[in-house]
Amino acid sequence: MAKATRVHSTPQRIKSSRKSKGASKSNEAGRDLDLLKLGRQLDLLVQRYETARQRFIPVNEAHKRLIAKWCQAHPGYNNDQVSAAYGEIYDDLCEGIGEHPDDVMDEVNGVSRAIVAIPATTIAGLAVKARLAAFANEGCWDDSDEDADWEVLVVRKLVDAVIRVAASSGSDFCFAKAEFTT
Q: Does residue 83 contact residue 74 with C-beta atoms inside 8 Å?
């Protein structure tokens, strides 16, 4: 299965589309206000996560090289010794780098569980759930439509459609997903 070139990261797919709202939009959005607030928190956390992830890419690559060198220099060491060296090397590399992506994911977990627990009653609330699904299943956008497994393609198209419809509804709480080249 050939990999498609990834066009957009999750934060690029989940970009803000603020539009003016009328009185009916305001009343509609009020029904999902808690869900919409959580959606905004999720969007900020996704941005923080992506920033941290990008910052740690070189650290992770350096770590792979250093642990490979360590293993070559220490043949015959048991798994516990390799694991200890693995952690020590990684900790040394991470010092002073900033927030680790795993730390952000701890926060995302709480917000995500709250979003899942609240039923959506509006298209804007449904869009929050779709944005969470897009973030949690980021890999669904890796393959082209032709190469994606059927289950992945169906989920991807559903998430895209919900976000697109929500963005076109004019709700101040909706966020548009960038178009893909699939």
A: no
pTM: 0.68
Pairing of strands 15-16, 175-176: antiparallel
CA distance 22 to 1: 47
Residues 142-180 pLDDT 10s: 999 999 999 999 999 999 999 999 888 866 444 433 332
Closest CA to 1 of 138, 114, 134, 146: 146
3-class SS string, the chain: CCCCCCCCCHHHHCEECCCCCCHHHHHHHHCCHHHHHHHHHHHHHHHHHHHHHHHHHHHHHHHHHHHHHHHHHCCCCCHHHHHHHHHHHHHHHHCCCCCCHHHHHHHHHHHHHHHHHCCCCCHHHHHHHHHHHHHHCHHHHCCCCCCCCHHHHHHHHHHHHHHHHHHHCCCCCCEECCCCCC
Nearest to 152 by CA among 163, 161, 141: 141
